[in-house]
Amino acid sequence: MEFHQPTTLDDALTLLAADPEALPLAGGATLVAMLNAELIEPSALVSLGGICELHTIEATPEGGLRLGAMLSHATLASEARLTGGNAVMRQAAAQIAHPAVRNIGTLGGAVAHGDPSSDLPAALVAADAVIEVAGPSGRRSIAAEGFFEDYLTTALEEGEMVAAVILPPQPESAVGHYEKFARVHGDYATLSVAVVLAMASGKCSHVRIALGAAGATPVRVVAAEARLIGSSLDAGAISEAAALLTAASDPVDDVRGSADYRLMLVPRLLTRALAAAGGAP
Amino acid sequence: MINITLKVNGEERALSLPATRTLLAALRNDMKLTGSKNACNQGVCGACTVLLDGVPVNACLVLAANVAGREIVTIEGLGEGGKLSPMQQAFVDAGAIQCGFCMSGMIVSATAFLAENPKPSRKEIRQALSGNLCRCSGYVRVIDAVELAAGRSGA
Ligand SMILES: Cc1cc2nc3c(=O)[nH]c(=O)nc-3n(C[C@H](O)[C@H](O)[C@H](O)COP(=O)(O)OP(=O)(O)OC[C@H]3O[C@@H](n4cnc5c(N)ncnc54)[C@H](O)[C@@H]3O)c2cc1C
Ligand code: FES
Ligand code: FES
Q: What's A198's domain CATH number?
């Protein structure tokens, strides 16, 4: 296996374009575990660690944040600029696995891997993030909601990479919250609910909700959000919104919980998440 | 084969290894530093935890070639001049060690954690060590040990 350590994104893209069997190496938390288990046999690895651009966090002209793909989960978990609605990202990153894995795993690796039971995809959809993709024919931007296409399948085309994630400025009074339910601290979620919520004079003025581990991709239902907007987040409104989200979910049965159990968690975790985001009556 | 150097426990080490070699395999097989253990090779158990530039990582998830030039501290590097480090001594004194297999990872994780949070609660200690599994399941005294080390360094 060849090992490349490019220092620019363009060099990385050229290396990937030249060899369809090559894989980008980010943190390696998933990739190296797969190599160790002999599940993959790439012809080459293109390490992204030496590419400075991928390690930066910058404010965007719109008032949001651009997060480089190689930022570790630990870095995101302690990033003070992830406040207000965008705190949903900080909270999700802080609940990934254990300290040592959070020091290794990266934003771009998690996004590219597209595991529906991982924590960042749902948070990205709730935050209405945009994935900045770099490829042989330049850069393109894809809304997180459309980026995750199926189980471990994303909108990335051959030779493309995740360069950054762009978080928009959230509504003024928005609060983000990531509610993760796992069997034990540090496990993958049995179910999770990511919300960005804003209240104005006791009524919900903005809400975006995405469920993790509820299907092959993060689950978002516009009608469920519409049911909550304008309401005081009373139990009736939440239960109707939860019913819409439950109907759109198609979770798996696995060691972390049966599909039925996961569906039962939807209303409970949604209630908790909205309350934690400041929607408590 | 790839030629790299690593700074391991303060010493420069020159190595020639295949790109697929993990840091854990390089430590254990190439450098004969067998204190870091290989239990799952999947990032799940924490027995291979080492410090990479001061922060704990699972050495089984890191490719050695990818950390060329960087600084590694293993369990062998915690003590000085043949003496146990304060954390190692606290684990002994608290009676935290059973078979010992998970202990190098536990102690490396706990050392990094206490440096960052010198007065932790028991809950914080549990969370900090949540990635370190003990098959002998003696967790209570592990937490006691970290508390003991915290108390001693505060004294
Ligand atoms: C024990 C353990 C527990 C975990 N628990 C959780 C958890 O609770 N929640 C959670 O969300 N996650 C969890 N994870 C996943 C982990 O945190 C990482 O998010 C994940 O490993 C991917 O990040 P990485 O940087 O390690 O990517 P890598 O392993 O380096 O790469 C993963 C895949 O993405 C590709 N890739 C990497 N970067 C890019 C890029 N920029 N562009 C295009 N392709 C790219 C690689 O080629 C590879 O196919 C866990 C992992 C382990 C080992
Ligand atoms: S051997 Fe590395 S985490 Fe288990
Ligand atoms: S002491 Fe035996 S595995 Fe922890």
A: 3.30.390.50
| For B49, nearest residue in chain A (alpha carbons) | A100
ipTM of the complex: 0.96
The pLDDT value recorded for residue A111 is 98
What's the domain range around A20? 1-48
Tens digit of each residue's pLDDT (9 = 90 or more) over A57-112: 999 999 999 999 999 999 999 999 999 999 999 999 999 999 999 999 999 999 99
Pick the last residue of a domain from A31, A48, A65.
A48
Report the predicted TM-score, pTM, of the whole model to 2 decimal places: 0.96
Q: Which atom of ligand 1 is nearest to the CA of A102?
A: 17
Dist. CA B119 → ligand 3 center (Å): 25
Among B22, B36, B45, which is best to mutate for testing ligand 2, by the most ligand atoms less than 8 A from CB? B45
pLDDT tens for B30-83 read 999 999 999 999 999 999 999 999 999 999 999 999 999 999 999 999 999 889
Put simply, whether A43 touches B (Cβ < 8 Å) is no
- In this predicted model, what pLDDT tens digit does every residue of A147-191 receive, in sequence order? 999 999 999 999 999 999 999 999 999 999 999 999 988 899 999
B86-152: CATH class? mainly alpha
Ligand 3: atom nearest CA of B135 is: 3
Mean pLDDT, range A257-267, rounded to an integer? 98
pLDDT number for residue A281: 47
Per-domain residue ranges for chain B?
Answer: 2-77, 86-152
Nearest CA to ligand 2 atom 3: B43
CATH 2.40.37.10 corresponds to the domain B2-77: no
Three-state secondary structure string covering chain A: CEEECCCCHHHHHHHHHHCCCEEEECCCCCHHHHHHCCCCCCCEEEECCCCHHHHCEEECCCCCEEEECCCEHHHHHCCCCCCHHHHHHHHHHHCCCCHHHHHHCEHHHHHHHCCCCCCHHHHHHHCCCEEEEEECCEEEEEEHHHHEEECCEECCCCCCEEEEEEECCCCCCCEEEEEEECCCCCCCCCEEEEEEEEEECCEEEEEEEEEECCCCCCECCHHHHHHHCCCCCCHHHHHHHHHHHHHHCCCCCECCECHHHHHHHHHHHHHHHHHHHHHCC
